[in-house]
């Protein structure tokens, strides 16, 4: 493979990297940090950190509860974040976007507010073998209550989804189909528009888990044609405890509340209550206001870099790092789909993933080892764990070189 960096973009991205203060730190007595755990959580640019700081210094108030100036400012900032996020994923309107604490809250919301009232014994929820537990366990919990069950579509040995297999399982018993846009373990980019079209023609709603897509690819929920799209803010340069659930308006209108409390009601009597329109109906209690102020800034930051540039830059890093990793004797990459994001899971012959990650850490290299919240996928590949290096646009080819050098050293130690 011809391994070349992309000099034009590399030059631009040096300045972008400099905006992430944490990337300048060292670990283990002066080793420069090489942060390759971006699929777990991303680092935050200074603008996001300062936006959260400024909110607490100058604007802190609760939203939608008071008429005073501060509360109005906080409400405008919070609703501004909703609008920025809705625009970012091309929602039809900000009202189609429920702000959540992340993907996990979003999938649980669909499980309890949408699915549970509709499930009958014998019904099916279709997911896939490559899903994160957040796109499996909530469906199991509501299926167990109703006598329905979860079925997983197969994947191929290279980590691609078996699209025909998925479509073949779309029978009338399926009340919801679910798929990840991008796998957090394999990096596989799934053909979500094709799956959405297959689901739509059979009248089956499709939920797409966008946790690993929104930070790395241009995402247009309406072009995909799905019914639900879930994502999480902390992987897209925003604060933890933020995220969203997009759904088509008529679907949100048809859903019952999952959490009850303040702000989600129209009128409360002791015997019963009526509920606010979506999205407020699903946002009981005080939200993570400062977090969403930070997430709005993260969206502005990602837009200023450009999602197409980010995807191109990360693709270059994926190609470079993949080719370099193949130089490590005994290294096997798990997940070699033709359409991949910059997530590389690997194993090295004779070394346990955790031992490898520990030795890499001593060299300053942060990778994740373990099952990556994807037990069924690990079982499919017959491994207990993998090491995973996941890149973001602020990573460099030199960091991939450092990873390879550290792996060669670790391999010699473990042999
Ligand atoms: N789905 C995928 C594909 C993920 O990678 C993750 C985070 N690892 C989640 C869901 C869950 O996201 P969160 O913990 O932010 O809710």
Structural features, described:
Helices cover 40% and strands 16% of the residues. It has 14 helices and 17 strands. The protein has helices at 7-17, 46-59, 69-88, 103-115, 137-146, 163-168, 192-201, 221-224, 249-254, 289-305, 307-325, 353-362, 375-381, 397-414; strands spanning 26-27, 31-32, 34-35, 97-100, 124-128, 149-153, 174-180, 206-209, 228-232, 243-247, 265-268, 273-275, 331-334, 343-348, 365-366, 368-370, 386-390. Strands 4-10-9-8-7-5-6 form a 7-stranded mixed beta sheet, sandwiched between helices. The protein has a 4-stranded antiparallel beta sheet with strand order 13-14-17-16, covered by helices on one side. Helix 2 (46-59) packs antiparallel against helix 10 (289-305) and helix 4 (103-115) runs parallel beside helix 5 (137-146). The protein is globular and about 70 Å long. The structure holds 4'-deoxy-4'-aminopyridoxal-5'-phosphate. 4'-deoxy-4'-aminopyridoxal-5'-phosphate binds next to helix 4.
